[in-house]
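Quick one from the shared queue. A colleague (R.T.) flagged Protein arginine N-methyltransferase as missing a structural entry in our internal table.

Convert sequence to structure tokens.
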Amino acid sequence: ALILPTDIFLTNNGGYPTLSRRHQRFVQACLGRGVHMIIAGEPCHPNAEGHLTYYQYVQHLYGKVPALSETEKFSSPYNDFLQAPLQPLQDNLESQTYETFEMDPVKYNAYENAVAKALEQRHPDKNKEVLLMVVGAGRGPLVHASRKAAQRTGHALRIYAVEKNPNAVVTLRNRVITDGWDNVTVISSDMRAWQGAGATERADIIVSELLGSFGDNELSPECLDGVQWLLKDGGISIPAKYTSYLAPMSSAKLWNDVKAHDTLKMFETAFVVKLCNVFLAADPKATFVFSHPNPDHPDRIDNRRETTLTFTATADATIHGFAGYFDSQLFDDVYISIHPKTHSPAMFSWFPIYFPLRQPFRVMAGDKITAHM
């Protein structure tokens, strides 16, 4: 809630309460996030009819809050709502989950641009066929994006779409027919265990969207390392690199939601959350980096990571856990990001991740916060 003392209101020409423009913008931003308003203090304006006049003014400001964008309409129900991360390797995703992700044009436009740049920069001979493999093809949005990229650049492209979910495979095979994907071959297999037709060929480009909210938390590096043998020497992986980030955060609401389950397991679970009413006590810091193709492949692949990060608190706060983010270089200068300062505008395929603490702790501005992960 936001407390608005009556004595911060100015008096307009009619003797009624009003707020300065800066205060108006701040209050409207809070109203847009669903913050409750509390009017405190005695009425102190000539024509104020008790506290009702102040509430009416706040209601007037609420009426001027800009309408939600389509992206905001989609994501607002998830604000500060705990969700378990998806496990696409372990579980077969439902059709509704695929449909939700396929609504994100920003991500697939970025992938299309990355594939187009890879074709133009690495394959100057447009008449020479390029072999591209989409691993974890789902219902085909990356296949569609890759075909559009080849149409833009004029390259001859042949595609293998590899998918383990039998329900998604049915959709892929149907799209081959209905969408005229004459250059696409669908492979029903776990990408790491693919054998038989096509598996003896080597790809010029491998495309995937296995990233999690912390970059590596949905087994992206392990899966991509597992198919690197399918890539030609000098071949391209899209994404090429991804970096995870961590920041100490304050959110009594999220911590209490975890505590309500009253089990230790919940405090040892990372949750996907559309962070809204939270406070970052310090800027996010880079945590882990993964690159593909893996330069250590196949001699010494080791995706174990550990690091110690030290943050300086920017204000007094109670730390309830850590917020996790990632950004990814798809190819060359094409990036996608959920980092607060570089977030890809209107992209909603990934929300941040929340690592709760068993016991919150208090810090003062300037205190050091150390996290070992």
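The chain has ten helices and 18 strands.
The chain has three domains: 2-66, 95-209, 242-372.
Added to the table.
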